[in-house]
Amino acid sequence: MKEIISALVVYHRSGPLCALQQCLESLSIRTVHAQSCGEVWQALTGMNPPHLVFTDTTLADGTWADVTALAAKAAMAVDVIVVSRLVDTRLYVDAIEAGAFDFIVPPFATADLSYVVRCAADNVCERREVQARAEQHPQRLLFPPFSQTSLPAMQGPKSKAT
Fold this sequence. Notes:
The chain is of the alpha/beta class. Helices cover 43% and strands 17% of the residues. The strands form 2 sheets. A 5-stranded parallel β-sheet has the order 2-1-3-6-7, sandwiched between helices. β4 (58-59) and β5 form a beta hairpin. The model has no long low-confidence stretch (mean pLDDT 88).
C-alpha cells in the first residue's frame, strides 16, 4: 500500500503559499498550515509528522533557515522546500547548502509542482524506511551477520609424508 503523503505549508501572509496549498491538495497531498517556527516544531514532533514542509522565506518568528534547522532535528525524516516570491540565486544556493531539498517560485505549474513533490516524497519515504530499519535492528548496523563465506577456507595441519 502506498503511503499517503502529507505536507506542512508554512506562511503567515496569504498569497503564493496559500495558492500552493490548494495546488498540493489538488495533487492529493494532505496539507496542514502553520504560521510560525513554534507551530512547525509542534507539527514535526507530533504523532504523524508531515513528509514535506513548504516554507515561506520569512515568518513572524524566524526564516526558512530556522525551519530547515528544525526539520534536521526532527525524529523522522522531513524534506523542506523553500518557496520564494522571487527568483534569487543566492537564496537558492543558501537554502540548498543549509539542507533544503528544493527551492521553488510561483507561478506553480501543476506538472512542475507534481515533479517536485514526487521527487521529494520518494526521497523522504526512502529515508524514513532506512530510519525504521535502523531503529528495528540497530545491532545489525554494529554487528553484521556472521557469514561462513566471508572467511578463508580453513585447512587442517599438513601431514608429513613418511
